[in-house]
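Sync notes, pocket subgroup
Present: LS, DG
LS reminded everyone that the earlier model was apo-only. Rerun requested with iron/sulfur cluster included. Inputs:
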Amino acid sequence: MFEIENNMDLLENGNLLPLVEDFYTIQGEGFHSGKPAYFIRLGGCDICCRWCDAKFTWNPKNHPPVEVRKIVERALSFPAKAAVITGGEPTLYPLEILCKELKYHNIQTFIETSGAYPLTGIWDWICLSPKYQQPPLAEIFPIANELKVIVEKIDDLDWAEENAAKVSKDCMLFLQSEWSKYNEITPIIVEYAKQNPKWNISIQIHKFMNIP
Ligand code: SF4
């Protein structure tokens, strides 16, 4: 893992977070697809998916810590009713202060996580996107609201089923083509979902809409 040198004490108690970017947009994937939401993207991830479309987030040193108070102030300048905390891997940091502040202002808190680290924060919606290089911790499966598996090759459907067997019965299940393999994989996951209708298809609509 990259070392975070600056403001370690404050990072540890969650008053500061290594912010990559924050912006008001439309959630483009999974269950909340199409919903307006304030995105808060944090830096730092050591899972290193080959196809990651957020490699610029990996090294937190490139993303100086920002006060949570300022992030929330910016979120409040928009009429957002939900915030999506993503990364990188956001659970590398204590997120309780951020979540409490957002919820205090009636903004729902959604997280996108690989589940590879202990969960931090207080969440209205947990989207678990498991990565086989660093599988999720057992504790995240029963509390995930949504399981979103990125499919790059047919074998990933086995990985999807392995994870689906561990989540709660209420957890929504999504298969999503890895973006660079969209044309090749989409017909496969569509047919798979039709044959196994517990699964839904997630499409990265923001990429078709050309919005961040
Ligand atoms: Fe990228 Fe997410 Fe994989 Fe980290 S877990 S490398 S941010 S896709």
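DG: The chain has six helices and nine strands.
LS: The radius of gyration is 17 Å.
Action: DG to write up.
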